[in-house]
Write a sequence for this structure.
């Protein structure tokens, strides 16, 4: 006979949690991540910053999504919301869902809404590093300066895999070899300050991929590196993505990088996705005036040297501004009275655009 307490625990554990689906809906079968209406706000003394204001975004298995836009558009906050590492207070996910779809063996899939998890709880800690990993722009801020490379990678491996210290060290060495770091055995015993910028970024990638995550969030992973090392790191990420069958969200302001790496591109402006499509859609048939402006403002190899780059006029609105209609209206050469209403993100053949012009 169970006690009242045991009966209650048994009853609660037999009910499926409201944020977990053991059978993933059919229309999401090829997705690993499905973000719906996500709103992440920062409540500051000077006002509320709506860093994400209704973001809808999907990531397919074994694909690369390039997330582009100017500084402050919400790219990094999107990644931090997925990882549930938004600093709170002042930040908070106030609305929306982030569905992580995972294979759970026997051909079945399990889905979990990350927004419903306690950001400090065991469930999200099990997901971070194992299911979803992140590479930050400056590895010195995320690598622990007091621990050796071996200890840092080994700890992540031991947290998520049933291995002893020696086995974890062997995994760390194998990962360093995979990211093609020179003299991997020596690097294992070194501290972050003893490595060059390129080596630290390789260690960061090795750390992020050490548990074979389904999703890798790479936030400006090569911005701090010189061009040659940048190209090597991007090649490496592409190769590892295929080897580990991971999906990548590549956050960057560099359209050249996404054109080489991404399968799909999402363009963000003022906390919203304003255009989404394949690389072909977005680069060769841009529909949103902001995307057109971004493409006209980058130099193109082979273009005549006297042809001028066209900057996007005006500035991104102040983060605490409340805008009723289209947030790009003050900078848009095509703005009309209709643009005082917010344009919805409308899809046509997989190409999504939030602009009244594209819908007329
Ligand atoms: Fe320009 Fe209007 Fe389109 Fe906004 S909705 S991008 S203001 S045309």
């Amino acid at each position: 006979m169970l006690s009242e307490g045991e009966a209650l625990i048994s009853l609660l554990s037999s009910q499926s949690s409201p944020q977990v689906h053991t059978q993933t809906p059919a229309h999401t079968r090829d997705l690993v991540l499905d973000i719906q209406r996500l709103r992440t706000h920062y409540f500051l003394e000077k006002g509320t910053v709506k860093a994400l204001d209704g973001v809808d975004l999907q990531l397919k298995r074994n694909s690369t999504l390039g997330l582009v836009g100017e500084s402050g558009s919400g790219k990094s906050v999107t990644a931090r919301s997925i990882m549930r590492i938004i600093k709170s207070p002042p930040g908070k996910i106030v609305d929306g869902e982030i569905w992580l779809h995972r294979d759970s063996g026997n051909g079945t899939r399990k889905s979990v809404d990350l927004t419903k998890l306690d950001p400090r709880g065991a469930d999200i800690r099990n997901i971070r590093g194992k299911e979803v990993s992140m590479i930050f722009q400056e590895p010195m801020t995320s690598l622990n300066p007091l621990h050796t490379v071996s200890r840092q990678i080994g700890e992540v491996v031991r947290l998520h895999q049933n291995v002893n210290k020696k086995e974890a060290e062997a995994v760390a060495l194998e990962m360093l070899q995979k990211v093609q770091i020179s003299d991997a055995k020596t690097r294992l015993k070194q501290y972050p300050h003893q490595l060059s910028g390129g080596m630290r970024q390789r260690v960061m990638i090795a750390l992020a991929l050490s548990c074979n995550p389904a999703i890798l969030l790479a936030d400006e992973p090569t911005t701090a590196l010189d061009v040659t090392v940048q190209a090597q790191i991007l090649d490496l990420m592409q190769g590892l993505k295929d080897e580990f069958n991971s999906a990548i969200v590549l956050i960057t302001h560099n359209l050249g990088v996404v054109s080489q790496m991404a399968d799909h591109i999402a363009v963000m402006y003022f906390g919203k996705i304003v255009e989404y499509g394949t690389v072909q859609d977005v680069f060769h048939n841009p529909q949103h005036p902001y995307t057109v402006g971004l493409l006209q403002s980058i130099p193109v190899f082979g273009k005549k040297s006297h042809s001028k780059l066209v900057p996007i006029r005006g500035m991104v609105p102040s983060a605490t501004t409340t805008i009723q209609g289209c947030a790009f209206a003050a900078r848009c050469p095509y703005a009309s009275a209709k643009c005082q209403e917010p344009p919805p993100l409308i899809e046509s053949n997989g190409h999504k655009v939030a602009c009244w012009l594209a819908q007329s």
